[in-house]
Each structure stands twice: as structure tokens, then as C-alpha cells.
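Table 4 source record.
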Amino acid sequence: MLPSPTHVETHGVAPAALSAGAALPIATRRTITDFDNVAVSQLAMNTHPLHTDYLHARATRFGRPLVVSPFLLSCLCALVVNELEVAAIGALEIRELAFERPVHPGDTIGAQASVVDVHAHGATFEVIGVKDGGERFARFLLALDWEHA
């Protein structure tokens, strides 16, 4: 027989508390490391040297390696989902995705999200990716359908 849990963590905004037009507070940020970028590049089999080779990147208009965009998208989605008090995401849809500015290893990123629409089984958010200092680097709509615990 398994012991009873001694701690149950609940945090985030409950689905019933979401309303169209409201901001979803997101305090968590993430500093992107070289290891993150190289590891994700290798896992995704993205061999372009612009992501992992400083000498190659220095000769480009960016001057430094670029963080691979699927990793940035994953981080931004996680920042939003982690602020919601839901057991599991049953479906996720990303629309109107645009990466507007580069992100480099060493940059710290965060997200700003506002509720676009709420329905019985989910919500849609406008998500803005920002670097420290407030520079916007990405924007997309994130539609989530969830399963309640």
C-alpha cells in the first residue's frame, strides 16, 4: 500500500478565474545557456553552424549563435502552462507564430500572456516572448484544451 501524500502543491490560476482580456501573470524567467542550445540542436538534428559555432556565427549579421526557435517556443509554452492550475493539457494549438528578433545563448527570456478567449474546456492566450529589458522577440496565439483533475 502506498503512503498518503504529505504535500500537494497547487499553484497558478484556476481555469474558472480566467476571463477574456485579463493578463496571466508570469514571473518565471529562463536564462538560455550554451548547453541548452547545443543539446537541443543535436536532439533536433539541426546541424546548422549558426546555432553552435561561435566562429561561424561571428561572421554573420547576428554576430553570435542563435538559439534554435523550437526550444524558445517550448520554453514560452511551458511558462504559460505552468501558470495554470490544470492537471493535463489535452490539446495544444499554436497559431500566428512569428519570431521577430534573435535570441542568443546567455539571454534571459520571459513571457507575457493575455487571455483572448475562454471556453468550458480551455482557453486561448496571446503570448509575447520578451528578453530581459522588455525587448520582444516572439508572438503567437496558444490555444489549450485541458483535462481537469
